[in-house]
């Protein structure tokens, strides 16, 4: 089988094909033939070497956390899944492979009406969004503001919040406001006009890549409101009358993914690329740009 990875950090051209034997599932695992892989900004960060200090890995490194595949072999003691099932798999690494193994706790059945490419774009962002909503614990009718609402986590969070009957104030760059309207956000604004939402939100989320929302999310909060930042470290509270924390853990995959699927969350696919070295390189080149809202997916033919 083929895997696609790198043996040195660098630009997208460091990727190459890595031949390997298909992995054999252990007890409690299944083997998957990979049908599609969703690319995430973390994959590019891994490739650039930005995660090396906090997550040292041996070369070759094969990225990939979001996988949809067909079960092709069962390890001992596997129940609830059968050969031929199409499943979503969230994994720590290694998804850029023709075959992978996965523990059953990291699997969820792919709904029959959900396209494989669309499904591959959902795991990581859905788990993050569900975790945030659980952490906020807002009652129906409350108001949440989302900065970075056109990004993957932000867009799924908008959809989940609306499904939970929350009012959603969505913030993004000016060229993405139309997309926020299609998501059904209660009100939308660009960052320069975040003051239009000042003091309206019971809670706010800074889901901007790198956390650079320039205080937009905090501006929307009522006194005593909670600000959650997705970048791994809490923003210094820009106001003394609000709380500030970071998303530092994720809910368990299966229940979180099931929640997201039950809410029928979806993200547009902006690039459907071949599952090949060229496809991986092209996908990572797109990851380096400010691309349109949506996901980049590698699809096996």
From TrEMBL:
Keyword NADP appears in the UniProt entry: yes
Keywords: NADP, Oxidoreductase
SUPFAM superfamilies: GroES-like, NAD(P)-binding Rossmann-fold domains
Gene3D superfamilies registered for this protein in UniProt: Medium-chain alcohol dehydrogenases, catalytic domain (3.90.180.10), NAD(P)-binding Rossmann-like Domain (3.40.50.720)
Any GO molecular function: mRNA 3'-UTR AU-rich region binding
Chain ranges of the Enoyl reductase (ER) domain: 10-298
Keyword rRNA processing attributed: no
GO cellular component: cytosol
Entries under Pfam families matching the protein: ADH_N, ADH_zinc_N_2
Protein name: NADPH quinone reductase
Species: Lacticaseibacillus nasuensis JCM 17158
């Amino acid at each position: 089988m083929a895997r696609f990875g790198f043996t040195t950090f660098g630009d997208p051209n460091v990727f190459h094909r890595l031949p390997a034997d298909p992995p054999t599932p252990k007890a409690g695992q299944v083997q998957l033939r990979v049908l599609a892989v969703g690319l995430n900004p973390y994959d590019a960060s891994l490739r650039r070497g930005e995660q090396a200090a906090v997550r040292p890995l041996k070369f070759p490194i094969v990225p990939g956390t979001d996988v949809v595949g067909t079960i092709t072999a069962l390890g001992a003691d596997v129940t609830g899944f059968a050969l031929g099932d199409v499943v979503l798999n969230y994994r720590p690494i290694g998804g850029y492979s023709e075959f992978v193994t996965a523990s059953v706790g990291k699997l969820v059945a792919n709904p029959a009406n959900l396209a494989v490419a669309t499904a591959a774009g959902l795991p990581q962002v859905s788990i993050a969004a569900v975790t945030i909503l659980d952490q906020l614990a807002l009652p129906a009718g409350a108001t949440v503001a989302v900065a970075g609402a056109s990004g993957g986590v932000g867009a799924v969070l908008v959809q989940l919040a609306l499904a939970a009957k929350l009012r959603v104030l969505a913030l993004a760059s000016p060229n993405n406001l139309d997309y926020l309207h299609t998501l059904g956000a209660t009100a939308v604004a660009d960052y320069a006009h975040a003051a239009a939402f000042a003091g309206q939100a019971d809670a706010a989320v800074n889901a901007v890549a790198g956390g650079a929302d320039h205080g937009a999310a905090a501006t929307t909060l009522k006194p005593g409101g909670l600000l959650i930042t997705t970048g791994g470290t809490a923003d210094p509270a820009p106001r003394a009358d609000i709380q500030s924390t970071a998303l530092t853990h994720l809910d368990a995959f299966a229940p979180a993914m099931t929640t997201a699927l039950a809410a029928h969350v979806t993200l547009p696919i902006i690039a459907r690329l071949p599952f090949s070295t060229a496809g991986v390189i092209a996908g990572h080149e797109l990851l380096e740009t400010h691309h349109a809202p949506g996901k980049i997916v590698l699809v096996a033919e």
